[in-house]
């Protein structure tokens, strides 16, 4: 697991780019009105499996199946989530003046032993985590709460399920 920069020029063989429309809040977050995610086409122009961690899109995770619609200019837009993969998406912003000194790599290193993958992005000073359904969710959630209570970071639950919500820390 390493920190990576998003390159809009990068491509993945046999993948398509799917745009997700976002609803920025009154405080201007997220700072964009749509997000492009890589996806693996499953049916001709209709279903796509998400294949990277969302930075901003809510209620979507790696492995989810989404129905897409193609606009007149050829852009694929996510219309609805058809099925959830069971993975959770968690976003973390490490505090620059906290014990981790804002290090995105330190966040990634903390979660890696728990089987959690992620990416850091310098532009927004944040980390996006993909939490597979087969890892110890209690340990992941406990680490998130510990980091929050000890001033390491703040976090957001971008896509979670009942198993995650049932864990009380």
From TrEMBL:
InterPro entries: DUF4265. It comes from Kutzneria viridogrisea. It holds the Pfam family DUF4265. It comes from the Bacteria. This is DUF4265 domain-containing protein.
């Amino acid at each position: 697991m390493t920190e990576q920069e998003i390159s809009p020029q990068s491509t993945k063989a046999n993948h398509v780019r799917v745009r997700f429309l976002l609803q920025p809040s009154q405080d201007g977050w997220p700072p964009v009105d749509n997000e492009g995610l890589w996806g693996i086409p499953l049916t001709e122009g209709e279903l796509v499996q998400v294949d990277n961690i969302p930075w901003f899109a809510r209620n979507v995770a790696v492995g989810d199946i989404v129905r897409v619609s193609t606009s007149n200019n050829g852009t694929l837009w996510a219309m609805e989530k058809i099925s959830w993969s069971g993975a959770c998406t968690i976003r973390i912003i490490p505090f620059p003046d906290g014990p981790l000194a804002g290090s995105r790599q330190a966040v990634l290193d903390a979660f890696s032993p728990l089987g959690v993958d992620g990416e850091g992005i310098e532009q927004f000073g944040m980390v996006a985590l993909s939490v597979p359904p087969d890892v110890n969710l209690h340990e992941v959630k406990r680490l998130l709460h510990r980091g929050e209570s000890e001033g390491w970071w703040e976090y957001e639950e971008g896509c979670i399920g009942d198993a995650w919500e049932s864990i009380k820390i």
